[in-house]
Specification:
Layout: H1 3-22, E1 36-42, E2 66-75, E3 80-83, H2 86-89, H3 98-104, E4 113-119, H4 126-133, H5 135-151, E5 156-160, H6 173-190, E6 194-200, H7 203-209, H8 212-218, E7 221-225, H9 251-260, E8 268-273, E9 275-281, E10 307-309, H10 310-319, E11 325-329, E12 334-340, E13 345-350, H11 353-365, E14 370-374, H12 414-435, H13 466-480
Parallel strand pairs: 1-2, 1-14, 2-4, 4-5, 5-6, 6-7, 7-8, 8-14
Antiparallel strand pairs: 2-3, 9-10, 9-13, 11-12, 12-13
Helix pairs in contact: 1-12, 1-13, 5-6, 6-8, 11-12
InterPro entries: Chitinase_II/V-like_cat (IPR011583), Chitinase_insertion_sf (IPR029070), GH (IPR017853), Glyco_hydro18_cat (IPR001223), Glyco_hydro_18_chit_AS (IPR001579), Glycosyl_Hydrlase_18 (IPR050314)
Pfam families: Glyco_hydro_18 (PF00704)
Region (Disordered): 433-457
Length: 482
Amino acid sequence: MSVAKRLPTFGWPLVVSLLLHFGSGSGAIVTDHDRVVTCYISTWAVYRTGTASYNLDAFDPTLCTHAIYAFAGLDEQRNAIKSLDAWQDLKDNYGKGGYERLVGMRAANPHLKVLLAIGGWNEGSEKYSNMAADPERRQAFVSNALAFIKQYGFDGLDLDWEYPTQRGGKPVDRENFVALVRELSQVFRKNNLLLTSAIGAGKDTIDSAYDVKTLSKYLDFLHIMSYDYNGSWNGRIGPNAPLTSRDLLNVEYSVEHLLELGAPASKLVLGLPFYGRTFVSTVAKARLGDVANEIGFPGPATKENGFIGYNEVCEELKRNPTDWTLSWDTAASEMVATKSNDSMSQVIVYDNTRSIANKVRYAVRQKLAGLMVWSIDTDDFNGLCAPETDTYVDFGDREKVKLTIPPPVSGKYPLLKTISNAIVVAQDELTQENVIPSEPDEVPTPGGTGSGPSGAGSRLVGPVSGAVLGMVLFAVAAVRYM
């Protein structure tokens, strides 16, 4: 097949598209692709100190398809949704009106859907277990939830019951959660509202808590909380969100298990952590697998033992670069930062732009609905850290595909921007792999294969001839100067 005959399939539109995406250096945004990018906002982040304090004014809606306001709680007496921070959430009594402010961002960003999340770790499980077990209470909650969501103009509700059957729940929660979701779905769909749920990623949690196949009929998306697979609570240094591992505690297993249980790929949204797990070990120059204390050290602003935001990590590395040794764990696809003396080590295992890009690539290859972020307020939303240059080193057999690699993300939200950039690159890579024949059926013209200098700007898509490349560049120039 000739180059010219291949162009209608992928060459001309895709080359122009990629050059427009990355040519200016600003990268892709969520309207440049067909995947979901769901952004949780932990609204208590406003109370953090210094540059880590996250106000809704810092939110960039061009980087998300769905924004989820986390969290609301359950009013057990009224079987209704309640605000957990009325001053931040509501406008009553001179409040800051967080609900209205986030929902109001749709006016200038019509692609954006805004949901309210109910639950979360601190809400526990028992109160949701008790409500879901009583048919009358369930019906009251469904009615009240609909009224609450419509009152504040949300596009839907995200259920974050952590977790059915666990933490004070009962075995019957598995069936009762299905009943709750079914009853909510029946009412929400009539009102053109979304219903989603965050679900645990561990095999034991999935198997005990969720009738995956049935839930998938009623939920618009299942947000996989594919992180916290390991932490200081294990007494051993382990990866927070490993892509692969020797046990079942990894991203790939979670996704494959959910697919086997009947979840359609088109409804699964892969969770990405914008934070790392911290460890203190009595082993000098400690590594993954070494023993550690059961309490890790806190991030300076998040102040939670064993937890540190990506923004805190990159700012610490910028301040004290010689204190830390960085290494990449290939199996986990995560970064490891270690600070040691002769008797102990502090270790951070976290996701950087390379980790995020690799997990996005996996999601694209699995044809998942998209990616979910917990949570955007621990990205480098101030743009204080140095760009990372190795984001796409694991992409592509460069003998078979010629990828257009975007420049390193600079400025605000490097992790979040990497998601959309990586979606475009991963889709390009997959398209080329699916289209390029195993053997060329004609001898390429010298200089017309896209080979050349190894810089990112020279990695054009596909085996495009010099004449076609000239037309592409002419078209791009015409578009930019219209």
